[in-house]
Write a structure and sequence with these properties.
The chain has about 200 residues and is an all-alpha fold. It contains five helices and no strands. The protein has one domain: Four Helix Bundle (Hemerythrin (Met), subunit A), CATH 1.20.120. Helix 1 packs parallel to helix 5, helix 2 runs antiparallel to helix 3 and helix 4 runs antiparallel to helix 5. It is elongated, with a radius of gyration of 22 Å. It starts with a helix and ends with a helix.
Length: about 200
């Protein structure tokens, strides 16, 4: 009986000792993933620049107004998730939950306005493929859709954080989940700012 209790105690102690190492590994995996994604988008935008030499390139393409609104939404969401994390870490549960919910809603608004932006492009007569498509708009469709998939992944991560926070799983020294979600959210935010400015200035 005493031996069994001692073994259980040792196992729990080992888990506690391993936790910082596991948390660091999770954060490193996230950073490797973000660097890989960043390189992918850098490659796509480089191909976009090279394609400007084509004779069918659109030099007068205008960024849809909805993309401007989505930019504002995601910048504000980056602020709200920053303060959400600070409140959760400080054990200010209610404030943290409100800010997490606002972040999620702003993320949903971002997705909605991205599709509104697509509608504006289509209304101007440009499609993703076919005779009414152009290399310019096809690139924009591809890059924005790729970014949207990562926004949806970030939204799922925020939902998981909201659920875990509602179950009071984030305690002092055990907030790696919300830290990872916040870092990824900031990444997709910065990525969209980069893409928006790229499409705005590189025409």
């Amino acid at each position: 009986m005493d031996v069994s209790i001692n073994k259980n105690f040792q196992m729990e102690n080992n888990l506690d000792n391993d936790k910082p190492r596991v948390d660091r590994a999770k954060k490193m995996m996230l950073w490797f993933g973000m660097i890989s994604l960043g390189m992918s988008f850098a490659g796509l935008t480089s191909a976009y620049v090279v394609s400007k030499e084509r004779p069918d390139w659109l030099t007068d393409f205008q960024i849809p107004e909805a993309f401007y609104i989505s930019l504002i939404a995601i910048v504000i969401s980056s602020i709200t998730i920053h303060f959400a994390k600070k409140n959760v870490v400080a054990q200010e549960s209610k404030k943290g939950m409100v800010l997490l919910m606002i972040t999620f809603l702003l993320g949903v608004a971002f997705v909605i306005f991205q599709f509104k932006g697509f509608s504006e492009i289509i209304a101007n007569g440009y499609f993703f493929t076919g005779s009414e498509s152009t290399i310019t708009t096809s690139f924009i469709y591809l890059v924005v859709l790729m970014h949207l998939t990562h926004i949806i992944a970030a939204l799922i991560a925020v939902l998981v954080v909201i659920y875990n926070h509602s179950k009071q799983k984030y305690t002092k020294g055990n907030t790696v989940g919300i830290e990872i979600a916040t870092t990824f959210w900031h990444f997709v935010d910065i990525l969209w700012i980069y893409l928006f400015l790229f499409f705005y200035f590189v025409r």
